[in-house]
UniProtKB/TrEMBL annotation:
GO terms for cellular component: plasma membrane. It comes from Corynebacterium deserti GIMN1.010. Coiled coil: none annotated. Keywords: Ammonia transport, Membrane, Transmembrane, Transmembrane helix, Transport. The chain crosses the membrane at residues 14-34, 46-64, 112-131, 138-159, 190-212, 224-244, 256-276, 288-305, 311-330, 342-366, 378-403. The lineage of its organism: Bacteria, Bacillati, Actinomycetota, Actinomycetes, Mycobacteriales. This is Ammonium transporter. It is a multi-pass membrane protein.
Length: 438
């Protein structure tokens, strides 16, 4: 290996380790974001759901998650053999003690860490739909089961060489009657529109329907108890997302730089788009709206960050922010209790970002010079979004009904009314009783 090659590998390794650390930060950031949106008596429980997910999914990812996602023994193209690389066997060093090189040229163990953080945040996102009414123990079991049966298979299908990895020469070719290479119709999912946001948003919707509403839903307004927490969480999510999208270039190169700029452009535009809808509809532009618009923009640009220009990222973002703001109202129209707007933000913005890249991808989108191939790409993006929704929805429903019949989802009505923090964790977030008198 030449000196230049060694320098390149070292630089890429450093960037990917930094990116993995940034994505890891996103789960505690989500805890602040969701915790601030919760009521005072349930904030610790909401934050613990994110931290609990960080514990459970990290452990199972090392044991079988990496193997199921990126193992070579694919089972029907849906998931890989969980025992092939169990416990990261044959994934760290070779027989001579040298670090195994990963697909992108740097040590494979770095990519393990990077992908682990994706699995964690994807699962933790779902918890926002269940605020203030479910057992912590049931959530922990669900997080492990959902990561195993929904996230790891989707990661394998889209990124790990599975069924959807070969869309260009598989289903898309059959759908349009073309052969591999004749048309630019391979699906685009740069950093996880399908695997992360559409799957998590769909799971949130399914759980909201199965678990049921809070006793106060539709009867009283559940206001966020700490808006500074919400804005801090959004800020940290934005910071961490540069690792999420920039790291998905898998190198410290121009693609990572493009993803960084596109992420900033779409997020800023989405925040303004959300605030504009709020101002027109409600007469006020709120801090909660600004924070939510930030997250909606981050979600929307995730599948498209490497395929747009900064200008088309602005377009994708402002539309995504506006759509997500309107999408939050779906829970009131249809009567499902998506407590902290996971469906409105992650499912709606994730669907738009995944489909929108089919319209706006540079020189390939339907509206940006792709012609008939651009239209085909647009259709393929719709299909992969629907596949992710159907797969995640079915798996989530099966897991949710099994847990409902065994462990049970809901805390007692009295516990829900009093607040979960003390009853589930023996703690309260704030001391409201004053100093103890001895």
């Amino acid at each position: 290996m030449s000196a230049d090659q060694i320098a390149a590998v070292s630089g890429n390794s450093a960037w990917m380790l930094m990116s993995a650390s940034l994505v890891l930060l996103m789960t505690p950031a989500l805890a602040f974001f969701y915790g601030g949106m919760s009521r005072q008596k349930s904030v610790l429980n909401m934050m613990m759901m994110s931290f609990g997910t960080l514990g459970v999914v990290s452990v199972i990812y090392i044991l079988w998650g990496w193997s199921m996602s990126y193992g070579t023994q694919s089972i029907a193209g849906i998931f890989a053999n969980p025992f092939e690389l169990f416990g990261l066997k044959d994934s760290i060093v070779d027989a001579e003690g040298n670090y195994i090189e990963g697909a992108a040229g740097y040590p494979n163990i770095i990519d393990v860490g990077f992908q682990l953080t994706f699995a964690v945040i994807s699962t933790a996102l779902i918890s926002g739909a269940l605020a203030e009414r479910v057992k912590f123990s049931t959530w922990l079991v669900f997080s492990g089961a959902w990561a195993t049966f929904a996230y790891f298979p989707l990661a394998h299908m889209v990124w790990g060489g599975g069924l959807l990895s070969h869309f260009e020469s598989g289903f898309a070719a059959w759908m349009f009657g073309v052969t591999d290479g004749e048309a630019n119709i391979a699906p685009i999912d740069f950093a996880g529109g399908t695997v992360v946001h559409i799957s998590a948003g769909t799971a949130a919707l399914v759980l909201a329907l199965i678990v049921g509403k809070r006793k106060t839903f539709g009867k009283s307004i559940a206001r966020p108890h700490n808006l500074p927490f919400v804005m801090l969480g959004a800020a940290l999510l934005w910071f961490g997302w540069f690792g999420f999208n920039g790291g998905s270039a898998f190198a410290a190169d121009g693609m990572a730089g493009l993803a960084w700029v596109n992420t900033t452009a779409a997020t800023a535009a989405a925040m303004l788009g959300w605030l504009a809808v709020e101002k027109i509809r409600d007469g006020k532009a709120t801090s909660l709206g600004a924070a939510s618009g930030v997250v909606a923009g981050l979600v929307a640009i995730t599948p498209a960050a490497g395929s747009l220009t900064p200008v088309t990222s602005l377009i994708l973002g402002v539309i995504g922010g506006g759509l997500a703001c309107l999408g939050v109202g779906l829970k009131y129209r249809f009567g499902f209790d998506d407590s902290l707007d996971v469906v409105g933000v992650h499912l709606v913005a994730g669907l738009w970002g995944t489909i929108g890249v089919g319209l706006l991808a540079t020189d390939a989108g339907w509206f940006t010079g792709g012609g008939s191939d651009g239209f085909k790409l647009f259709i393929v993006q719709i299909v992969i979004a629907l596949v992710a929704m159907v797969f995640a929805g079915i798996v989530t429903a099966v897991i949710a009904y099994i847990l409902k019949a065994t462990m049970g989802w809901r805390v007692d009505d009295e516990v829900e009314q009093q607040g979960i923090d003390f009853n589930e964790h023996g703690e309260s977030a704030y001391d409201t009783t004053g100093p103890e008198i001895r």
